[in-house]
Amino acid sequence: MDRRHLLTLALGATTVGACGGRSSTTGGDGPIVVKVADAVRATNPMVAAERYFAEQVGALTQGRYRVEVSAGGVLGDDNRVNEMVRTGQVAFAKTLVSNLSAYDKRLGVLGLPYVFAGEKECMAALDGELGRRCATILYESGLVTLAYFYGGERNLYNAKRPIQTPADVKGLRIRVPQNIVSIDIVNAMGASAVPMATNDILSALQQQVVDGAENNTVYYVTEQHVVYAPYYSRTRHQQSVDVLIASRKWLSEQPADVQDAIKEAGRRTQTEEIRLWALESTRSVDAATAQGAKVNDADVDAFRRAVAPVLREHRGAFGDLATLLPDD
Length: 328
Fold this sequence. Notes:
Blueprint (H helix, E strand, L loop, with lengths): L2 H16 L13 E6 L7 H16 L4 E6 L7 H9 L5 E5 L22 H8 L2 H12 L2 E16 L14 E4 L3 H10 L2 E4 L5 H6 L5 E4 L1 H6 L8 E17 H5 L3 H35 L3 E4 L2 H16 L13
Parallel strand pairs: 1-2, 1-3, 5-6, 8-9
Antiparallel strand pairs: 3-8, 4-7, 4-8
Helix pairs in contact: 2-10, 6-11
Pfam family, one: DctP
GO cellular component, one term: outer membrane-bounded periplasmic space
Keywords: Signal
């Protein structure tokens, strides 16, 4: 390894350390240590998948690289970390694909309401041309797609009342991810959308800054939102898709065999994440109920009608990517 490469890694390590993570090390004969960042808590199965990714990278590089998982937003919120990955300050991160629409609005296509019937249809699209096109867009933005993570169906939950129809949503302040599609969906339902970073939701619920949020049951339980928003209503308005990304800048500086090993680790991790998610998703419903959640099935057809204008409005913004959606 040449001196210039060592200097690049050392500078990156200093930056990461300054952002709350542990510095990367490359000294002596020890492994190169890099980080994968995530905003969700360590109890989330996606973090378990990231640990699996770390194990695979270690094995496939024969111990030359060690990946440390930094969960719980310790390196910053999604937007900050995504930019750190893009600029090469952090090697890897996992984030909601729609969060990356700040780099290219077409990535919001995966957040459109009611376009996937469920996990199989969603992941089939991501394993096909739609996933490849999104990966190309990310690459052009400085990010390498290593794996798509399935994040379940997103549903509404709140502290006030069970939700059956859009009429029940009126007057509620609902936290949403910081992207325009999510904002428009929840506003169309009749609520007031409050865009907010993942790390801030729990305190916002505790302080009643928001009345609720929307996400899958795994997130609802592992982030302890069930304690403050016990009404969980299955609106099934989105299939949640996250992506494990690498810094194109950082990855391009690594030896070719290491690049191949990291990409192979990503492919293996996508399969493992889907397995882990299925196990925890089943458990999370029982866990939510045991913690006092009142779970109900909402009138999905009524919500589908309510958000239909959002689907029509945004389809045009995504160009030919929208033609690759299953219902086209």
